[in-house]
Amino acid sequence: MVELSEEEAAVADGRDGAGAAMAMRIVADSARLLGAPRLLPIASAHIDGALYHGDSGTLFAERLVEGGARVAIRSTLNVGALDLTGCSRDRLPEHERGMARRMMDAYRALGCEPSWTCAPYQAGHRPALGTDVAWGESNAVVFCNSVLGARTNRYGDFLDIACAIAGRAPDYGLHRPENRAATLVFDVGALPRSFVASEIAWPILGSLFGKSVGNDIGVVAGVDAHPGEDALKAFGAAAASSGAVGLFHIAGVTPEAPDVATALAGRTPSATIPVTAEMVADARSRLSTAQQAERIDAVAIGSPHLSLAEFERLARLIGGRRLAVPIHACTGRHVLAGLDRLGLRKPLGEAGVTIVADTCVVVTPILPELAGGVLMTNSGKFAHYAPGNTGYDVLYASLAECVESAVAGRPVLERAPAA
Amino acid sequence: MSEVACEILLDGPAASGPALVLTAPISFWGGVDPKTGRIADVRHPQHGDCIAGRVLFLPGTIGSSSASAVLLELVHAGRAPAAIVLHEPDAILLLGLIVAREMGWETPPAVRLDRTMHGQFAGRSVTVGADGSIAEA
Questions:
Q1: Measured between CB atoms, does B72 come within 8 Å of chain A?
Q2: A172/A169 Cα distance (integer angstroms)
Q3: Which of chain B's ends, N or C, has fewer CB atoms near its CB within 10 Å?
Q4: Are residues A51 and A141 in the same domain?
Q5: B16 catalytic, yes or no?
Q6: What is the pTM of this model?
Q7: Is 0.95 exceeded by the ipTM?
Q8: What is the CATH number of domain B7-136?
Q9: Given CB atoms, is A66 within the 8 Å cutoff of chain B?
Q10: Are residues A195 and A271 in the same domain?
Q11: Partner residue opposite B66 with nearest CB, options A33, A34, A156
């Protein structure tokens, strides 16, 4: 049974208004169902709940606003269903667009920052090692836990904003240090170093990791150089799409894993998975549903949202050429000013890149409706969700291959994958 | 059939309806149409059945953080189950009911019952009492 402090009980009783009371009761009821003994103070939130799935979610957010609720802590917003920057256009019907807009407005009115990105950790929201936070959006959760070392469970619709208003979260799961140790080892030491150092390795390894670890927490062994933050971003997003991964460790790279033994909290792992080139090749082929495609209809990149560094790489790879097939490049508005500063926005647009800000192509209809369409992507997460959410088949490839294919209008793949 | 006592997860007034006993776990997100309550997952054994107005027996749920949004949408559309009987509490799914109740919408009760006890209610009309008991209506 969850026990509330005097302060929490007073808020739940309406001391601070109807909206604050509703939020505290939602957090407390959830804590009861989760078996949490108490609530924890939290330092920040990342809110996934402002993506429109139906009218009830809009009405819920507006009820909180009417009740005078405000977030008690720093709260960034994940993507919405609309590109409010005007960079791209969606095909939402009028009613849905109106309700999605009302929903985004309501979350602003609650005091959330209009960050509208699934990569808040690259938009200046980086909670410190060891702090308790309440984050939503699976890739943001896994990055927050694994790369930043802050502590969060996977907070979904309603509970994320309720925690942000209450400034409290149920004390269970990954908030507790004893639940954060790895129990199995995912050993990539036998793979060629050149492969592990390549960009394409990380979404594939992430996808394989997510499928392999199940509900356990894994530590990756055998990585001898930091692969860079964008690689960790891609790894976590792919792992959280193919499995229920909320936390990973990489020995020598992530903050709670200076070495394998520390990540395991000194215990013997329940299993060690020796990752082979065959497993990698299989995981890579599973990311595509249209491996034999002879043409492509679009390219989508940016799940998680592209960083400025990733845009610079995109521009270098395009090298002033014109694309035969559009590249949809999804990002947060925090990157747009950098693109302007570097003078990249106009040349990218002229080459045929559609920048999508505030949202992305798998959560809202932006890609043209096209039966039998083929989408090429370098994102493990897009590869996972695009077939169900967009109706396009997917061909997974590296960023360089995506660009060459977009220029040619057909798949241009390097020979065999390096592993 | 005798009355079976259950742990109350979310209380409410007594609720009745024809039982729908699922024989496999389900993901509400992607598995249930939020507008109609029809089971949309083509791989699910009860694909095509409708959960609206039924006493829904769930042997397990497949976690998605959007399950709560689907259930709230069903309540709002008047297409929710009459009551939900879970093998184990799924806090994310039940959050949809917690929020529905906070919104002041008519909300089905939820109780916990081991899945080995679900089969006896298949094909019957049942009542989930305010005390958490399940009996033939």
A1: yes
A2: 9
A3: N
A4: yes
A5: no
A6: 0.94
A7: no
A8: 3.50.30.10
A9: no
A10: yes
A11: A156
